[in-house]
Amino acid sequence: MNARHARYPFFAAAREAVGESDVELGELVTTDDPAVSRGLERVERALMAGTVESETPGEWSTRDELLSYPVARILVSLIDAPAAVRKYAHAEATTAYERFTEDFVADDDGLKSTGTTTVELDDFLVEFGLTDDVRPEDGAQATSARTRKTDAYRVALGTYLTLSTPDWGENWRLVNREVADGEVRIVREELYELLREAVRRRVAEGLPFVVGDDAIAEALDAEIDSLRGLLADRKPVGRIDTVVPELFPPCMKHLLERAGRGAELDHHSRFALTAFLTGIGMDTDEIVAVYRETALDEEEIRYQTEYLRDDAGTQYAPPSCATMAAYDDCVNRDERCETITHPMAYYARALDDDGESGARGTNTAD
Ligand code: SF4
Question: With contact defined as beta carbons under 8 Å apart, do 179 and 64 qualify?
């Protein structure tokens, strides 16, 4: 097991490294190995932040990081929901994209690490069987140096059609592309998009699978419950377009107060607060401003906010009171809390009681 395997755990060599090790996944899971905690984080981050990058990378060894991948696949399989597979594969591909573009740039700049951590573009082409389907624009067969120094490529039509979709935008439609001799012209950034899609497909392949070992499923019961809770909480809710901070539920006031003084919020808390603020009609810039004092990554907050709001303007609900309580985020309960089961319902009721308008249409159960 080496650092490159941990960085690109979906590579065949990484899979082989796990297979050749004496690690028993069943034993790993039943003995609470750190790889299981990292695997859980991997899936939680995928569902809530669109990335599988750890929030505490220094905490995990190369072994934990690599083994967390098969553990995450088991968890996603046990959740057994199409949305979990979709979001997980998307997050693995997004993380891989960030890593390989960083590696390719370092390679171009001559900053490539001398160890076995990073990859070159050619490694990716070989890994996905694309060496014969992608060549530099000048017509020569791709060689290592020429491939990475070139800004435009010709990709075999079949590969282009397999890996891209017109949903990516007008620019990807074949009618808008330069096609000649069964090849499509693409620029370097577009090649990277195709590679991201190749990763997404490989990760999604075979998921969910049947976890035949009952002991594994039993040992992961609590983790699966918590992950299913994250997904179940994402029911569409109506939008509340009224922002009255003094009427926020106590839990959200508490999280806001902590964010305001720069306290580190863990990802459950951050997701809950972001979903709540999105649900009451705050836009992305306003939400980013809420977190300004914290050390949180702005891009991640933007991703999460946009993820919570789909194209049709639908909002996704923050966690229910039960989930908030499970994560110790239900604090300072008051009398109104006794009458509801959801922070959005609390707020809608508070606005009603206060005579505020605009808070209508929540369909969160209360
Ligand atoms: S009961 Fe619900 S609304 Fe009230 S503080 Fe707890 S999580 Fe928030």
Answer: no
* pLDDT tens track for 139-157: 544 445 445 567 899 999 9
Tokens representing 322 are: 């039960």
Listed in sequence order, the DSSP H helices in 109-209 are 121-127, 144-149, 157-163, 188-204
**Residue having the nearest C-alpha atom to atom 8 of ligand 1:** 251
Region 165-193: mean pLDDT is 90
Q: Three-state SS across 242-298?
A: CCCHHHCCHHHHHHHHHHHCCCCCCHHHHHHHHHHHHHCCCCHHHHHHHCCCCCCCH
| Residues 145 and 247 both lie in one domain | no
Q: Is 346 in the pocket of ligand 1 (CB under 6 A)?
A: yes
Determine if ligand 1 sits within 6 Å of the CB of residue 319: no
| Domain membership of residue 323 as a residue range | 236-354
DSSP 319: P
> What's the domain count of the chain?
3
> Domain end: 207, 222, 254, which one?
207
Q: Based on the domain organization, do 241 and 180 belong to the same domain?
A: no
Q: Are residues 264 and 331 in the same domain?
A: yes
- Whether residue 208 is preceded by a cis peptide bond, meaning omega within 30 degrees of 0, is yes
Tell me if 39 CB under 6 Å of ligand 1.
no
CA atoms of 109 and 218, how far apart (whole Å) = 49
Query: What pTM value is reported for the model?
Result: 0.67
DSSP annotation of 309 reads B
